[in-house]
Design goal:
elongated; Lipocalin; endosome; BLOC-2_complex_Hps6_subunit; alpha+beta; HPS6_C; Hermansky-Pudlak syndrome 6 protein homolog; HPS6_N; five-stranded antiparallel beta sheet; 34 strands
């Protein structure tokens, strides 16, 4: 069935301030210029210079004051006026031919007031011939005196223009910030300036030099390039605006480097230009509408039933939903932009009609959201919406039916059974309660005010997200915008079940913008350092359950797609590796049964280790921290073993001492491991106090000595009193004394001696009496044949014969 084009009345203009003056200007002056503010609430009407006053009217829909200005005869009126796309407050700029520019806006007080006034033309005798206000900039074409560079003749006059740019941004509550003047193009002909949301079009005028009247330029500020196009030749060339290489800002130099563009051609005969999001539409005097795309390519869109009779006839072009709308006189024609076919033709009640640009994305109010997707048509009769309407007799599914159909597809993707779900089954099956609850809301069981209150926060977030997307499309503050968009997207995905496409999308966000994505995780988990190198979190358990859980339904994710916990570990390895072990420790404290830490799968520290790579290729410091912080006996012993191999004795001892008293067996194993090293060599002697603190309190001296004996090195020769030079000193009783004291009790035992070594520990403090020293007989000396070998050099033993 064929669609029907409709004109829906949005306003009869009575809800606009100054409605009578608004209707008067719309009905009385065919040359009035009409512009609409980005939010769609304000209308600007500007009469051409020389017209009777008032020459300027700004009407507002709803609350607010209008702005009406009139300039007396002999005083020039503005050449053009534009609304500025400032989201904080309405603002407009007025530009005169002399170069005077005024910025007006609404502030804290009522009404409009002048915010700033400046001169655009710095040279004497210069005048502005065209102006445009793309987002965040003010661009004008300025005519300068031809003799400024010593040239004379018609070509010099024809190329005596330049195109200049200044940034124009809001500053504070009621200020503006105008940047320095930058020349975009000089030595160029007179150009008209038209702007879309992304690009600025420099189009020839009736006074442009005939040799270049077939050429137009497209400047993309976000890409830093200019496209030179000749639609009648089918040629286009792209140039980067880099003034470092020669003089590419000069128009004539630019054309000399582009072959084929200066072929003799007739100038473009254009009746009407109209910028659209798809490119630049233009209507010629044969009734043909063409589209110049941003890359410079040109294609015919279609031909109107009637051609414009003369340049004085009114015409307006616009595009919506792949449809071209053209108002020529009092006729409205709708053409398909793909095929050029005429879809509908309507005769209007007036020929004073203006097509308005749609509001900027994200800046529509509630009424504009309802009428989104069509063009707006303004006349003295009222404000209308041009759009398509569903044909009569076409039954659209109800909101309740759409809920159950969408729920069927959702549950079918999650279902493991082969039978297909039906909407009727969902309606009567009590298992699926969510679609039934939503359907009851849509049936009116919940009042609209209650529903609006429930959804207000989500609608506000959605509106903010749409405004952010519009800002990115416009190319303003791209880095901050992409960061905010990534944070919004991560927060949204965390509210889903993170299965399949959602998990893949989250991986993509972390790969593209890891810093912004991690910032969103910080806020979701409420992570904060505690000052001791650890992390704390105040996030609810359901958030941690989603972070720590493995893939939904037990299915492995596709190749290259990481679960959320592994994704966070990889992100931390890239951004802040030192916070990975504290994060894993915190996750182990938060985990519950079946969350990935206490379930049948791998423990969290093992999942984090797998992110670091294969064994042997992981960063040693991170691996050790993860093993020590895991709390798993096998992992801690593995870490202590690695520390022993690296001879990091103090850290190995501190790892054992850090274990709580609830892990006595693990502390005992670490002590035995380090005691074996203490028995083999003397490199642990400096850390003997820490080793004594690690000694288990229930270890008896006998057990200690047996452990030492097990690990003492085998002696191949009889022991010598002193080691050989360069050899490892042996273990002595003096070194053992501190350990043996640690294994005893605090007081001397009152019962029988349980160990043959306890007399060493419980020394009364008074040594036994020294035996008398008398002369040694030869017989006594002969009982010790080796004593003379220990006599000091130069001294002999006094041996006498008493027999």
């Amino acid at each position: 069935m064929k669609r029907a084009g409709t004109l829906r009345l949005l306003s009869d203009l009575n809800n606009f301030s100054g409605a009578a003056r608004l209707r008067e200007l719309l009905a009385g002056d065919p040359a009035v210029r009409v512009r609409c503010s980005p939010d769609g609430r304000h209308l600007l009407l500007l009469r051409p210079p020389g017209a009777p006053g008032p020459q300027l009217l700004v009407a507002v829909r709803g609350p607010g004051a209008e702005l009406e200005r009139a300039w007396p005869a002999g005083q020039p009126s503005p050449l053009d006026a534009f609304f500025l796309p400032w989201p904080s407050r309405p603002a407009l700029v007025l530009v005169w031919e002399s170069g005077l520019a005024e910025v007006w806006g609404t502030g804290v007080g009522p009404g409009w007031r002048l915010l700033q006034s400046t001169e655009l033309c710095t040279g004497g005798g210069a005048r502005v011939v065209a102006v445009a206000a793309p987002r965040g900039r003010l661009v004008w074409c300025e005519e300068r005196q031809a003799g400024a560079e010593g040239r004379e003749g018609p070509p010099a006059v024809a190329f005596s223009h330049c195109v200049c740019v200044r940034t124009l941004e809001p500053s504070g509550e009621a200020g503006t910030n105008l940047g320095r003047t930058h020349i975009l193009l000089h030595n160029c002909p007179r150009f008209g300036l038209l702007t879309s949301r992304k690009d600025l079009f420099l189009v020839p005028t009736a006074t442009t030099w005939p040799g270049v009247g077939h050429i137009l330029l497209i400047w993309s500020p976000s890409k830093g390039k200019v496209v030179v196009a000749a639609p009648c030749l089918g040629l286009s060339h792209s140039k980067s605006l880099n003034p470092g290489g020669g003089d590419p800002w000069d128009f004539r130099t630019l054309l000399r480097g582009l072959p084929g563009l200066l072929s003799p051609r007739q100038p473009l005969t254009v009746h009407t230009w109209a910028p659209t999001p798809q490119g630049l539409l233009w209507l010629d005097f044969r009734g043909t509408v063409s589209l110049v795309q941003p890359h410079g390519g040109t294609r015919a869109v279609g031909t109107l039933q009637e051609a414009p009779a003369s340049l004085a006839g009114s015409a307006a072009l616009g595009a919506f939903h792949g449809t071209l709308a053209c108002v020529l006189g009092s006729t409205l024609e709708l053409l398909d932009m793909g095929s050029g076919q005429l879809l509908e033709r309507k005769v209007l009640s007036t020929d004073r009609v203006h097509l308005l640009e749609p509001p900027a994305p994200g800046m529509e109010n509630e009424e504009e959201l309802e009428t989104r997707g069509g063009l707006r048509l303004l006349s003295a009769v009222g404000l209308f919406r041009v759009g398509w309407e569903a044909p009569q007799g076409l039954e659209l599914p109800s909101a309740e039916d759409l809920v159950f159909e969408e729920a069927c597809e959702y549950y079918q993707r999650r279902s493991l059974r082969g039978a297909r779900l039906t909407p009727e089954e969902l309606r009567h099956n009590s298992t699926f309660r969510a679609p039934q609850a939503l359907a009851s809301i849509l049936q009116g069981h919940v009042s609209p005010s209650t529903l609006l209150t429930t959804l207000r926060a989500e609608l506000r977030d959605y509106r903010g997200l749409e405004q952010l997307k519009a800002q990115l499309v416009a190319g303003d503050e791209e880095e901050a915008g992409w960061t905010e968009l990534a944070e919004h997207e991560v927060a949204r995905l965390l509210r889903t079940e993170l299965m399949g496409d959602q998990l893949a999308q989250l991986n993509t966000v972390f790969q593209a913008l890891p810093t912004a994505a991690w910032g969103a995780i910080l806020r979701a988990l409420q992570l904060q350092p505690d000052g001791n190198g650890r992390l704390r979190s105040q996030a609810p358990p359901d958030v941690w359950k989603k972070v720590l859980g493995v893939t939904t339904g037990g299915k492995e994710p596709p190749s290259g797609i990481l679960p959320l916990f592994e994704l966070l570990c990889r992100c931390l390895c890239r951004l802040e590796p030192r916070w990975l072990p504290p994060f894993v420790e915190l996750a182990q404290q938060q985990g519950g049964p079946g969350w990935g830490s206490g379930g049948p799968g791998l423990p969290l520290y093992r999942r984090a280790l797998e992110v670091l790579g294969e064994e042997g290729t992981r960063p040693e410091a991170l691996e050790l921290d993860l093993l020590l912080g895991s709390g798993r006996p096998k992992a801690v012993l593995q870490a202590v073993g690695q520390l022993v191999q690296k001879e990091e004795w103090e850290r190995a001892l501190e790892a054992g001492l850090a274990l709580s008293s609830s892990s006595p067996l693990l502390r005992s194993e670490i002590f035995k491991l380090l005691l074996a090293e203490f028995a083999r060599h003397r490199r642990l002697d400096a850390h003997l106090p820490l080793l004594c603190r690690l000694c288990p309190p229930d270890l008896a001296p006998t057990e200690l000595l047996l452990l030492l004996r097990t690990h003492l090195p085998d002696e191949l020769e009889p022991p010598a009193p002193f080691p050989e030079p360069g050899a490892e000193p042996p273990l002595t009783v003096g070194l053992l004394r501190a350990l043996l004291e640690q294994t005893g009790t605090q007081g001397r035992p009152s019962g029988p001696v349980l160990s043959q070594y306890e007399d060493i520990l419980w020394d009364p403090g008074t040594p036994p009496p020294t035996p008398p020293r008398g002369p040694m007989s030869a017989l006594q000396a002969s009982d010790h044949p080796g004593l003379e070998a220990w006599a000091p050099s130069g001294q002999g033993l006094c041996v006498t014969d008493t027999g």
